[in-house]
Amino acid sequence: MYDSFDMKTGMLCNLQLKIKRLLDKTPLWLSFVIIAGNFLFLLTLVLSYSNYLWNRNRLLASYASSMERTLDLKTASLEQYLDDLSDFAVLPVNDRDFYYELHQTAPLSEQALQRMRQTVSIYYYTRSDLVSYQLYLLQQDIGIGRFASDQRMKLFASKGVTGSDGYIGCIHSRTGSCLLPAGDGALFAFYHTMIRISDRHPIALVGIEVNDSFIKSGMSGLSYALYRNDGTLLYTNAAGSLSDFLNTPGAAAQPDREHIISAGDARYIYATSSGSKYGIRLVSYTPVSAVTDSLQNIRSNSIRQGILFLVLSLVLVSFILRFLTEPLDALARSQASFGKGNFSKISLGRSREVSELTSSYNEMSEQIQNLIQENYVSKINEKTAQLTALEAQVNPHFLYNTLQAIGSEALLNDENEIYEMLLALAGNLHYSIKAPNINSLRDELTFTQNYVRLQKLRMGEKLYVSINIDDSLLDVMVPKCSLQPLVENSISHGIKGDRSTIHIHVFAEQSDNLLCIHVKDDGAGMDADTLLGIRQTIQESPVGLSGKSIGLANLYHRLRLMYGSQCDLLIDSKPELGTEIILKLVLPPSHMA
Description:
Blueprint: H1 2-25, H2 28-89, H3 96-103, H4 110-125, E1 130-137, E2 142-146, E3 154-157, H5 165-171, E4 177-180, E5 186-195, E6 202-211, H6 213-216, E7 223-228, E8 233-236, H7 240-246, E9 260-263, E10 266-275, E11 280-287, H8 288-292, H9 295-338, H10 352-412, H11 416-434, E12 438-440, H12 441-459, E13 463-468, E14 477-479, H13 484-494, E15 502-511, E16 514-521, H14 528-539, H15 550-563, E17 567-574, E18 578-586
Parallel strand pairs: 13-15
Antiparallel strand pairs: 1-2, 1-6, 2-3, 4-5, 5-6, 7-8, 7-11, 9-10, 10-11, 12-14, 15-16, 16-18, 17-18
Helix pairs in contact: 2-9, 10-11, 11-12
């Protein structure tokens, strides 16, 4: 079992490998043509078949609808014909003597019976569509009539006629009549009762068989059938397998939604019309092939048009794909020579993508040439770069140590103010060099206070800074140099015009999962247009800015790089009322309430 599975897997892998090798050797344009050809072939096949089905279904539905309208007219005429037969069947009621004899329960005389036979004979010969006519005297158990096999009107015994299907059908009918299948050559058998007026009790039953001349009129060339609404077949002119099918139980069932019914090996278009008064249904059956033969030319034309469309499409697609992919062949050849050391530039086009590939190829070729030339220079400068990197590390430490030495000398000479300045400057220098990118708010406050101390030595009483931050927030980690630029901004832009002093208030608060640090001053402030320009400047990339608010812009973009959308820097200001800047940072889970 496992050997068989492994064998099949190996065969599949070999087949995939052969296909891959074949595709590797096939030009791109030819692969496109093969794929497009298969797609166009399937598309043409589907469209042609769909077009044929659409025309076929439309034609069949149109034919069925037309036939139903024709059958509606025929059914209406047939019900009118039945009304006429009903009037004919009760003609004896209009003959007073005849009607009187029908009521008699005592045996009728021979003269009375002969007179009645003569009257019935006259009724019979007034119509040309009758095959047989029988009048059953229910009170006498006698019948008068002419059967299809008889040549004359005669009297016959009719005991038990009240148990016949004709009588029972008339009793249960609201019209007092019923239809039953008739013998060969007849359309149907029509039965109608005559009643006693006093109690509406049947006293006579008329049975008539009519020929099919009426239904044949206007129905030549059609196969049709006449049913009762209960599915009983009354008449059909169908022959062969269709006749056998219609004479089987259940043949009167409704067709599918396409008005198609199958009978034996043939399929027929089914159209029907029903009459409400006598419970009849007229159905026509037309072979599907008789209607769809006219579609054969349409189908042939569709196939020819589809093949022509396919051929022209393949030719056009082949030309277009060959035209578009030819530069790729040239690019592939250039790529092959590139590996051999040929760095010459190429010029290809015909599409935006090919032009971009050509430009990229030429740029790559030029860059590789430059890299080869610069490789030696790079090796020579490697040690110089290492020395420069060491100097970049040594110089800040040298400056920090020098500031400490000067501070010590100032302390020895009782220059305490100079010592404080140097100590604050050295602390900030150490913090900016050595501190990591994320520090506690406590360390950031120390850095900011050192900066304020240096500014107060310069500005004296003109500068007043108050800091009010709860101790529970001092251990929150914040970005390095995130608070000092806010204070620096207030000092730099708050004293303008008539303003000679500035008060700055720094405080922090926790709002849900946010730490909000406020730096608020009572400086000169700014108008709405200036504030809008500052806001836009802060949100733009700091590269290339003129220097105005560049500190806030740098801080904003540094925060965005570190925290993404979970931080914000808001600024609000009013002329002569001061400026407030709010730094919003997301608190870590350990500091959330």
